[in-house]
Amino acid sequence: MADSLKAAVLALWTLFFSCATYHILATGRIQRFECFTDYARELSCHWEAAAQTNCSKEFRLYYKKEILSTVYNTCIPETGKGSSMNSISNCICIILPEYFAAGLAYNLALQANGTVLWNDTVEVAYIVKPRPPTNLTIEKGENDNFYVLRWIESYSAGDMLYGEEVTYEVKYWNKQNPEEEFVEQLPYQTTHFEILAMQLKQGYDYLVRVRRNYTGSYSTNWSDWSNAVEFHSELRENGGTKSQIQPRAILLLRMSRELRFQSGGKCCPLMKLRHLSMM
Questions:
Q1: What is 14-82 written as a DSSP string?
Q2: By the 8 A CB rule, do 197 and 147 touch?
Q3: Tell me: the pLDDT tens digits for 127-170?
Q4: Among 264, 119, 74, 103, which Cα is nearest to 188's?
């Protein structure tokens, strides 16, 4: 009987604590608290607060390594960009770990005026959000069939994610008609992508951006999108109408491109090209 009563009291207390925590997160001072790491330099925690909140005055985020650390360090958050234009304030705290490794975990506690609003333990290997590709450039290919998009790898040798299995996602769309949109995934390591000129409308401006996630030993979230770059479509048609040549030509060019990637970037073998031309 006593054990049943203790269990009931414990259940009621757990329910009360969960409801109180939900109330604080959903209707109180903060919402959408989450942490991510680029697994190379920083662990960042973000949350939303009421409009016009001064994050550095209102909040403190205390943190320590779960193992071999007894003292909490303090992170003073900053108010994120664009907060003054929105109905909410975006707060961000950046923690700079000394190292990254499997099993590394942090105890975190967010406080406002001495009141704990959120606390938990995060294991960094499970909250990885990669850095987006950087320094995008785009130019017309030598044969005018492609626009070649290039970017710079944002991890270097020595970083935990360098060389890991990765998937890139390339998104490009018509600036004047945004409903004309293309999304393609590249399930391999690369720093360039070829956009088929024939599938774009002549005389229009296009925007393109890239993001990625890792799919091997480190299963990650998608990165943020890179900054978009803009280019102008200037397709030249040589004989025939676009509607007549486009479907077959696009198929051949796509298959040719895939064969080049599969052969390490080298040109397709002659036999394969002959096979394609007979389709």
A1: HHHHHHHHHHHHHHSSEEEEEEEE-SSS-EEEEEEEETT--HHHH-EEEEEESSS--S-EEE--EEPTT
A2: yes
A3: 999 999 999 999 998 888 899 999 999 999 989 999 899 999 99
A4: 264
Q: CA 210 → CA 26, 222, 245, distances in Å?
A: 33, 11, 29
* pTM of the shown model: 0.72
The Cα 189–Cα 151 span in angstroms is 12
The model's pLDDT over 35-82, given as tens digits with 9 standing for 90+, comes to 999 999 999 999 999 988 999 999 999 999 999 888 999 999 999 876
Nearest-10 Cα torsion for 228, 232, 237, 238: -100
Strands 78-79 and 88-95: antiparallel
The helix or strand, by DSSP H or E, that contains position 242, with its residue range, turns out to be helix 242-262
- The length of the chain is 279
